[in-house]
Description:
Layout (H helix, E strand, L loop, with lengths): L1 H29 L9 E4 L4 H10 L6 H10 L6 E4 L7 H6 L8 E6 L5 H12 L3 H11 L10 E6 L4 H23 L6 H17 L3 H16 L22 H6 L22 H8 L8 E4 L5 E4 L2 H10 L4 H27 L4 H9 L3 H14 L6 H9 L1
Antiparallel strand pairs: 1-2, 3-4, 5-6
Helix pairs in contact: 5-6, 6-7, 8-9, 8-11, 9-11, 13-15
Amino acid sequence: xxxxxxxxxxxxxxLSKLLIILLLIPLAYNFIPIEQGxxxxxxxxxxxxxxIATLQEHGYSVYDIDKIMLNVLFDTPQKGWYRVPKxxxxxxxxxxxxxxxxxxxxxxxxxxxxxxxxxxxxxxxDLNLNPxxxxxxYKEKSTFTEADILSGFxxxxxxxxxxxxxxxxxxxxxxxxxxxxxxxxxxxxxxxxLKVILIIASIIQKETYNSxxxxxxxxxxxNRLEKNMRLQMDGTLNYGKxxxxxxxxxxxxxxxxxxxxxxxxxLPPAPLCTVSIQALEASFNPKKTNYLYFMLNxxxxxxxxxxxxxxxxxxxxxxxxxxxxxxxKKVIKTIKTIKSKKDKKSKKDKKSVVSKKNSENNExxxxxxxxxxxxxxxxxIENNExxxxxxxxx
Length: 394
Protein backbone atom coordinates (compact mmCIF):
# COMPACT_ATOMS: atom_id res chain seq x y z
CA UNK A 1 0.00 0.00 0.00
CA UNK A 2 2.79 2.41 0.95
CA UNK A 3 4.63 1.46 -2.25
CA UNK A 4 1.55 2.34 -4.30
CA UNK A 5 1.28 5.70 -2.55
CA UNK A 6 4.96 6.42 -3.28
CA UNK A 7 4.53 5.58 -6.98
CA UNK A 8 1.47 7.79 -7.17
CA UNK A 9 3.36 10.59 -5.41
CA UNK A 10 6.35 10.36 -7.81
CA UNK A 11 4.04 10.22 -10.82
CA UNK A 12 2.17 13.39 -9.73
CA UNK A 13 5.46 15.12 -9.03
CA UNK A 14 6.78 14.20 -12.49
CA LEU A 15 3.53 15.31 -14.08
CA SER A 16 3.64 18.67 -12.30
CA LYS A 17 7.23 19.19 -13.51
CA LEU A 18 6.20 18.40 -17.07
CA LEU A 19 3.31 20.83 -16.84
CA ILE A 20 5.63 23.55 -15.53
CA ILE A 21 8.08 22.87 -18.37
CA LEU A 22 5.26 22.95 -20.92
CA LEU A 23 4.13 26.30 -19.50
CA LEU A 24 7.67 27.68 -19.33
CA ILE A 25 8.60 26.74 -22.94
CA PRO A 26 6.11 29.14 -24.56
CA LEU A 27 7.02 31.84 -22.05
CA ALA A 28 10.74 31.36 -22.68
CA TYR A 29 10.14 31.17 -26.45
CA ASN A 30 8.09 34.36 -26.35
CA PHE A 31 11.06 36.37 -25.08
CA ILE A 32 13.74 35.03 -27.46
CA PRO A 33 15.00 38.22 -29.16
CA ILE A 34 14.36 38.74 -32.88
CA GLU A 35 17.00 40.43 -35.00
CA GLN A 36 15.63 43.17 -37.27
CA GLY A 37 15.60 42.44 -40.99
CA UNK A 38 14.22 44.23 -44.07
CA UNK A 39 10.85 45.79 -43.35
CA UNK A 40 9.23 45.02 -46.74
CA UNK A 41 9.26 41.57 -48.32
CA UNK A 42 7.31 39.36 -50.71
CA UNK A 43 5.94 36.00 -49.52
CA UNK A 44 5.99 33.63 -52.54
CA UNK A 45 3.86 30.82 -51.03
CA UNK A 46 0.96 30.67 -48.59
CA UNK A 47 2.69 28.40 -46.06
CA UNK A 48 4.37 28.85 -42.68
CA UNK A 49 7.51 27.18 -44.04
CA UNK A 50 7.65 29.81 -46.78
CA UNK A 51 7.17 32.60 -44.23
CA ILE A 52 10.06 31.36 -42.07
CA ALA A 53 12.34 30.89 -45.11
CA THR A 54 11.46 34.36 -46.44
CA LEU A 55 12.05 36.02 -43.06
CA GLN A 56 15.43 34.27 -42.79
CA GLU A 57 16.32 35.38 -46.32
CA HIS A 58 15.48 38.97 -45.37
CA GLY A 59 17.65 39.01 -42.24
CA TYR A 60 15.27 38.00 -39.40
CA SER A 61 16.46 35.58 -36.72
CA VAL A 62 13.70 32.96 -36.93
CA TYR A 63 14.06 29.21 -36.39
CA ASP A 64 12.37 25.82 -36.84
CA ILE A 65 10.64 26.21 -33.48
CA ASP A 66 8.83 29.23 -34.96
CA LYS A 67 7.24 26.92 -37.56
CA ILE A 68 5.77 24.80 -34.75
CA MET A 69 4.40 27.85 -32.94
CA LEU A 70 2.99 29.29 -36.18
CA ASN A 71 1.25 25.99 -37.00
CA VAL A 72 -0.32 25.84 -33.52
CA LEU A 73 -1.16 29.48 -32.82
CA PHE A 74 -1.56 31.42 -36.08
CA ASP A 75 -3.52 31.27 -39.32
CA THR A 76 -1.67 30.34 -42.51
CA PRO A 77 -0.41 33.54 -44.19
CA GLN A 78 -1.45 34.52 -47.71
CA LYS A 79 1.19 35.07 -50.37
CA GLY A 80 1.96 38.65 -51.34
CA TRP A 81 3.73 41.76 -50.08
CA TYR A 82 4.22 42.19 -46.32
CA ARG A 83 5.63 44.87 -44.09
CA VAL A 84 7.01 44.60 -40.56
CA PRO A 85 6.72 48.13 -39.09
CA LYS A 86 8.94 47.46 -36.05
CA UNK A 87 10.44 44.66 -34.00
CA UNK A 88 8.25 43.70 -31.05
CA UNK A 89 9.85 42.57 -27.79
CA UNK A 90 7.53 39.58 -27.59
CA UNK A 91 7.81 36.93 -30.31
CA UNK A 92 4.07 36.23 -30.39
CA UNK A 93 3.38 39.92 -30.99
CA UNK A 94 5.99 40.00 -33.79
CA UNK A 95 4.23 37.24 -35.76
CA UNK A 96 0.83 38.70 -34.95
CA UNK A 97 1.87 42.06 -36.45
CA UNK A 98 3.16 40.62 -39.73
CA UNK A 99 0.21 41.74 -41.80
CA UNK A 100 -0.45 42.78 -45.38
CA UNK A 101 -0.52 46.49 -44.61
CA UNK A 102 -1.61 49.10 -47.12
CA UNK A 103 1.52 50.38 -48.86
CA UNK A 104 2.32 52.72 -51.70
CA UNK A 105 2.81 50.66 -54.85
CA UNK A 106 3.79 51.23 -58.46
CA UNK A 107 2.85 49.32 -61.61
CA UNK A 108 5.95 48.39 -63.58
CA UNK A 109 6.28 46.78 -66.99
CA UNK A 110 8.85 44.20 -68.06
CA UNK A 111 9.31 44.20 -71.84
CA UNK A 112 9.81 41.13 -74.03
CA UNK A 113 13.22 41.13 -75.71
CA UNK A 114 15.12 42.82 -72.86
CA UNK A 115 18.26 41.22 -71.48
CA UNK A 116 19.05 41.20 -67.76
CA UNK A 117 21.27 44.28 -67.94
CA UNK A 118 18.62 46.34 -69.76
CA UNK A 119 15.89 45.07 -67.46
CA UNK A 120 17.74 45.90 -64.23
CA UNK A 121 18.92 49.27 -65.54
CA UNK A 122 15.35 50.34 -66.35
CA UNK A 123 14.02 48.95 -63.06
CA UNK A 124 16.65 50.93 -61.19
CA UNK A 125 15.54 54.11 -62.95
CA ASP A 126 11.81 53.48 -62.37
CA LEU A 127 12.20 52.53 -58.70
CA ASN A 128 15.22 54.67 -57.77
CA LEU A 129 17.42 51.66 -57.01
CA ASN A 130 21.08 50.78 -57.57
CA PRO A 131 21.47 49.26 -61.10
CA UNK A 132 24.75 47.45 -60.32
CA UNK A 133 23.30 45.92 -57.17
CA UNK A 134 20.15 44.85 -59.06
CA UNK A 135 22.19 43.19 -61.82
CA UNK A 136 24.42 41.40 -59.28
CA UNK A 137 21.38 40.02 -57.41
CA TYR A 138 19.72 39.03 -60.72
CA LYS A 139 22.79 36.99 -61.71
CA GLU A 140 22.93 35.34 -58.27
CA LYS A 141 19.25 34.37 -58.34
CA SER A 142 19.05 33.51 -62.05
CA THR A 143 18.50 29.92 -63.13
CA PHE A 144 18.63 30.38 -66.91
CA THR A 145 20.88 33.50 -67.29
CA GLU A 146 18.02 35.29 -69.07
CA ALA A 147 14.21 34.81 -69.22
CA ASP A 148 13.85 34.13 -65.46
CA ILE A 149 11.47 37.09 -65.32
CA LEU A 150 8.59 37.04 -67.80
CA SER A 151 7.41 40.14 -69.60
CA GLY A 152 4.22 41.79 -68.38
CA PHE A 153 2.93 44.09 -65.64
CA UNK A 154 3.83 43.72 -61.95
CA UNK A 155 2.76 45.60 -58.82
CA UNK A 156 5.60 46.39 -56.41
CA UNK A 157 5.99 48.70 -53.37
CA UNK A 158 7.85 51.95 -53.93
CA UNK A 159 10.04 51.47 -50.85
CA UNK A 160 11.20 47.86 -51.36
CA UNK A 161 14.94 47.28 -51.80
CA UNK A 162 16.79 45.56 -54.67
CA UNK A 163 16.74 42.04 -53.18
CA UNK A 164 13.03 42.21 -52.26
CA UNK A 165 12.02 43.49 -55.72
CA UNK A 166 13.92 40.79 -57.60
CA UNK A 167 12.84 38.02 -55.21
CA UNK A 168 9.24 39.05 -55.86
CA UNK A 169 9.64 39.27 -59.66
CA UNK A 170 11.31 35.85 -59.77
CA UNK A 171 8.57 34.35 -57.59
CA UNK A 172 5.70 35.95 -59.54
CA UNK A 173 7.23 34.86 -62.86
CA UNK A 174 7.63 31.35 -61.51
CA UNK A 175 3.91 31.34 -60.61
CA UNK A 176 3.09 32.43 -64.17
CA UNK A 177 5.27 29.66 -65.59
CA UNK A 178 3.67 27.02 -63.36
CA UNK A 179 0.17 28.17 -64.32
CA UNK A 180 1.17 28.20 -67.98
CA UNK A 181 2.66 24.68 -67.71
CA UNK A 182 -0.53 23.34 -66.10
CA UNK A 183 -2.60 24.73 -68.98
CA UNK A 184 -0.41 23.25 -71.71
CA UNK A 185 0.98 20.04 -70.20
CA UNK A 186 -0.17 17.29 -67.87
CA UNK A 187 2.93 17.66 -65.73
CA UNK A 188 5.21 20.51 -64.71
CA UNK A 189 8.33 20.46 -66.94
CA UNK A 190 11.67 19.81 -65.25
CA UNK A 191 14.45 22.41 -65.31
CA UNK A 192 16.05 21.14 -68.54
CA UNK A 193 12.70 20.98 -70.38
CA LEU A 194 11.83 24.46 -69.17
CA LYS A 195 15.22 25.76 -70.31
CA VAL A 196 14.64 24.41 -73.85
CA ILE A 197 11.15 25.97 -73.96
CA LEU A 198 12.56 29.34 -72.81
CA ILE A 199 15.44 29.22 -75.32
CA ILE A 200 13.02 28.62 -78.22
CA ALA A 201 10.65 31.32 -76.89
CA SER A 202 13.53 33.80 -76.67
CA ILE A 203 14.57 33.12 -80.30
CA ILE A 204 10.96 33.72 -81.37
CA GLN A 205 10.89 36.92 -79.28
CA LYS A 206 14.08 38.18 -80.96
CA GLU A 207 12.82 37.38 -84.46
CA THR A 208 9.40 39.07 -84.24
CA TYR A 209 7.16 41.27 -82.11
CA ASN A 210 4.13 40.18 -84.14
CA SER A 211 2.22 37.64 -82.01
CA UNK A 212 0.42 36.31 -85.12
CA UNK A 213 3.76 35.24 -86.64
CA UNK A 214 5.24 33.64 -83.54
CA UNK A 215 3.77 30.15 -84.05
CA UNK A 216 5.00 30.20 -87.68
CA UNK A 217 8.56 31.09 -86.64
CA UNK A 218 8.30 28.38 -83.98
CA UNK A 219 7.38 25.92 -86.75
CA UNK A 220 10.51 26.91 -88.72
CA UNK A 221 12.66 26.26 -85.62
CA UNK A 222 10.95 22.91 -85.03
CA ASN A 223 11.21 21.83 -88.69
CA ARG A 224 14.89 22.74 -88.93
CA LEU A 225 15.75 20.93 -85.70
CA GLU A 226 13.89 17.81 -86.87
CA LYS A 227 15.81 17.86 -90.19
CA ASN A 228 19.12 18.36 -88.32
CA MET A 229 19.59 21.69 -90.11
CA ARG A 230 21.35 24.69 -88.62
CA LEU A 231 18.85 27.29 -87.44
CA GLN A 232 20.81 30.09 -89.16
CA MET A 233 18.85 32.82 -87.39
CA ASP A 234 20.14 36.32 -86.69
CA GLY A 235 18.15 36.45 -83.45
CA THR A 236 20.39 33.85 -81.80
CA LEU A 237 23.36 36.22 -82.22
CA ASN A 238 21.48 38.96 -80.33
CA TYR A 239 22.78 37.79 -76.95
CA GLY A 240 24.40 39.68 -74.07
CA LYS A 241 26.15 42.86 -75.21
CA UNK A 242 25.03 42.15 -78.80
CA UNK A 243 21.34 42.18 -77.82
CA UNK A 244 20.29 44.94 -80.21
CA UNK A 245 23.19 44.92 -82.68
CA UNK A 246 22.48 44.27 -86.34
CA UNK A 247 23.97 40.94 -87.37
CA UNK A 248 26.37 41.45 -90.29
CA UNK A 249 28.10 38.87 -92.50
CA UNK A 250 31.38 39.81 -90.79
CA UNK A 251 29.87 39.05 -87.36
CA UNK A 252 28.58 35.68 -88.57
CA UNK A 253 32.10 34.76 -89.72
CA UNK A 254 33.90 35.91 -86.57
CA UNK A 255 31.51 34.88 -83.76
CA UNK A 256 32.69 31.47 -82.60
CA UNK A 257 30.24 31.06 -79.72
CA UNK A 258 27.48 28.44 -79.61
CA UNK A 259 24.99 31.30 -80.01
CA UNK A 260 26.06 31.42 -83.66
CA UNK A 261 23.51 29.09 -85.24
CA UNK A 262 25.05 29.71 -88.68
CA UNK A 263 28.09 27.71 -87.51
CA UNK A 264 26.61 25.33 -84.93
CA UNK A 265 23.64 22.96 -85.06
CA UNK A 266 20.99 22.85 -82.37
CA LEU A 267 19.83 25.54 -79.95
CA PRO A 268 21.93 28.27 -78.28
CA PRO A 269 23.24 27.39 -74.78
CA ALA A 270 20.84 29.70 -72.89
CA PRO A 271 17.81 31.96 -73.40
CA LEU A 272 18.58 35.27 -75.10
CA CYS A 273 16.15 37.64 -73.40
CA THR A 274 12.94 38.17 -71.45
CA VAL A 275 10.02 36.41 -73.13
CA SER A 276 6.29 37.05 -73.38
CA ILE A 277 3.46 34.60 -72.74
CA GLN A 278 2.72 34.73 -76.51
CA ALA A 279 6.29 33.60 -77.30
CA LEU A 280 5.97 30.82 -74.71
CA GLU A 281 2.69 29.67 -76.28
CA ALA A 282 4.35 29.59 -79.69
CA SER A 283 7.28 27.64 -78.24
CA PHE A 284 4.86 25.04 -76.81
CA ASN A 285 2.59 24.95 -79.85
CA PRO A 286 4.38 25.51 -83.16
CA LYS A 287 2.03 25.68 -86.11
CA LYS A 288 2.14 22.59 -88.33
CA THR A 289 3.84 23.75 -91.54
CA ASN A 290 6.56 22.73 -94.02
CA TYR A 291 8.30 26.10 -93.65
CA LEU A 292 12.08 26.14 -93.37
CA TYR A 293 12.76 29.82 -94.13
CA PHE A 294 11.37 33.27 -93.43
CA MET A 295 12.28 36.70 -94.74
CA LEU A 296 11.29 40.24 -93.78
CA ASN A 297 9.00 41.96 -96.29
CA UNK A 298 8.17 45.58 -97.12
CA UNK A 299 5.18 45.56 -94.76
CA UNK A 300 7.41 44.78 -91.81
CA UNK A 301 6.10 41.22 -91.43
CA UNK A 302 7.70 37.99 -92.73
CA UNK A 303 7.27 35.86 -95.82
CA UNK A 304 7.64 32.13 -95.15
CA UNK A 305 8.97 29.51 -97.56
CA UNK A 306 9.29 25.73 -97.70
CA UNK A 307 12.16 25.69 -100.24
CA UNK A 308 15.33 27.67 -100.72
CA UNK A 309 14.23 28.57 -104.26
CA UNK A 310 11.07 30.19 -102.88
CA UNK A 311 13.10 31.84 -100.12
CA UNK A 312 15.45 33.44 -102.70
CA UNK A 313 12.43 34.99 -104.42
CA UNK A 314 11.36 36.51 -101.09
CA UNK A 315 14.87 37.90 -100.59
CA UNK A 316 14.82 39.42 -104.07
CA UNK A 317 11.36 40.92 -103.50
CA UNK A 318 12.54 42.76 -100.41
CA UNK A 319 14.36 45.80 -101.76
CA UNK A 320 13.52 48.87 -99.76
CA UNK A 321 13.55 51.90 -102.13
CA UNK A 322 16.78 53.91 -101.63
CA UNK A 323 14.99 57.25 -102.08
CA UNK A 324 12.49 56.38 -99.35
CA UNK A 325 15.33 55.24 -97.09
CA UNK A 326 17.13 58.56 -97.58
CA UNK A 327 13.91 60.42 -96.81
CA UNK A 328 13.37 58.42 -93.60
CA LYS A 329 16.96 58.97 -92.46
CA LYS A 330 16.62 62.69 -93.13
CA VAL A 331 13.36 62.84 -91.13
CA ILE A 332 14.94 60.95 -88.23
CA LYS A 333 17.85 63.42 -88.24
CA THR A 334 15.49 66.42 -88.33
CA ILE A 335 13.31 65.03 -85.52
CA LYS A 336 16.41 64.43 -83.38
CA THR A 337 17.57 68.02 -84.00
CA ILE A 338 14.14 69.41 -83.06
CA LYS A 339 14.05 67.29 -79.90
CA SER A 340 17.58 68.32 -78.93
CA LYS A 341 16.72 72.02 -79.33
CA LYS A 342 13.51 71.63 -77.31
CA ASP A 343 15.35 69.78 -74.53
CA LYS A 344 17.97 72.54 -74.29
CA LYS A 345 15.31 75.23 -74.35
CA SER A 346 13.21 73.55 -71.62
CA LYS A 347 16.21 73.46 -69.31
CA LYS A 348 17.02 77.15 -69.76
CA ASP A 349 13.59 78.57 -70.37
CA LYS A 350 10.99 78.38 -67.55
CA LYS A 351 8.26 80.50 -69.06
CA SER A 352 4.48 80.15 -68.70
CA VAL A 353 2.30 77.63 -70.53
CA VAL A 354 0.93 80.46 -72.70
CA SER A 355 4.38 81.46 -73.95
CA LYS A 356 5.12 77.80 -74.69
CA LYS A 357 1.95 77.56 -76.75
CA ASN A 358 2.94 80.72 -78.65
CA SER A 359 6.39 79.31 -79.37
CA GLU A 360 4.84 76.06 -80.61
CA ASN A 361 2.62 78.04 -82.98
CA ASN A 362 5.73 79.69 -84.42
CA GLU A 363 7.37 76.39 -85.40
CA UNK A 364 9.11 76.57 -88.78
CA UNK A 365 7.50 75.03 -91.88
CA UNK A 366 10.47 72.66 -92.06
CA UNK A 367 9.71 71.31 -88.58
CA UNK A 368 6.03 70.83 -89.36
CA UNK A 369 6.92 69.03 -92.58
CA UNK A 370 9.30 66.78 -90.65
CA UNK A 371 6.52 65.85 -88.22
CA UNK A 372 4.17 65.09 -91.13
CA UNK A 373 6.79 62.91 -92.79
CA UNK A 374 7.46 61.20 -89.47
CA UNK A 375 3.75 60.31 -89.16
CA UNK A 376 3.64 59.12 -92.75
CA UNK A 377 6.93 57.21 -93.10
CA UNK A 378 8.19 56.23 -89.66
CA UNK A 379 5.17 55.75 -87.37
CA UNK A 380 3.86 52.72 -89.31
CA ILE A 381 7.19 50.91 -88.87
CA GLU A 382 8.75 52.43 -85.72
CA ASN A 383 7.83 49.37 -83.60
CA ASN A 384 9.35 46.99 -86.14
CA GLU A 385 12.89 46.72 -84.83
CA UNK A 386 14.20 44.55 -87.69
CA UNK A 387 12.91 46.88 -90.41
CA UNK A 388 14.23 50.00 -88.68
CA UNK A 389 17.65 48.39 -88.31
CA UNK A 390 17.80 47.57 -92.00
CA UNK A 391 16.77 51.11 -92.95
CA UNK A 392 19.29 52.80 -90.67
CA UNK A 393 22.12 50.61 -91.94
CA UNK A 394 21.50 51.51 -95.59
